[in-house]
Amino acid sequence: MARRVPIISQGDLLIAAVQEELSDGDIQEMQHSILKEVSRRAASKVILDVSLLDVIDSFGTRMLSDIAASVALRGARIAIVGIRPEIAMAMVLLGLNLENIPTALNLDHGIAILRDRS
Amino acid sequence: MNAPVAEPAAVLQPVSCDSDVVAARQLVRKLAVELEFSRPDQALIATAVSELARNIVKYADEGEIELCAAASGSKTGIKVTARDRGPGLDDVELALQDGYSTGNSLGLGLPGTRRIVDQFEIRSEPGRGLTVTVVKWR
Question: Which pTM does this prediction carry?
Fold first, then answer.
């Protein structure tokens, strides 16, 4: 069962809000829909809000990196926002990181860092 | 009237597709909340179950995750047993090294899981299956 990842756009900004408990298939589907929306809306900035995700494991981390890399190849910039503190801790212990991908505490900070870098 | 003290029942989640991975994660999270694990520990055990369940889907097609409460002295914890009837591992030590993967992955699943739990045991019968048992104390 695929779950929708709501994607809203405002000007050249896309915001994708990941819902709870995405399966691996749902995450892959999300990558496709984000890329499609980036093209359709000619977005130059993407915020991926993962604050509702309660597990980010090795597959989740790889998918987030893949999404960021593919969005970058489309010429847009991305920030991943809202990684929960306990998830951040678990990721570090697992040996996972999101190297070279801008991350921010929340939506506002994410928008701010994308604006600063333009 | 002497009702026997109920042993905590084991919960069994069959695992054969990626929605089963989500279900296993939800089950262990629920158990961790019931056993009053801290939020960081809830996240750790849920992540460990996620890795173990995905390994079953990826390498063995089907298997199961068994969850039960564990007790040792004054300690309370969760014991997770991931069982499959897949190919097993020829070289367990190799599979436990960071970055080693036969699949297209980061190779952090098993070694990472070992780092985030308190006890970790792996039993491989090449050609017959793999059983990974982990315990996380509260």
Answer: 0.89
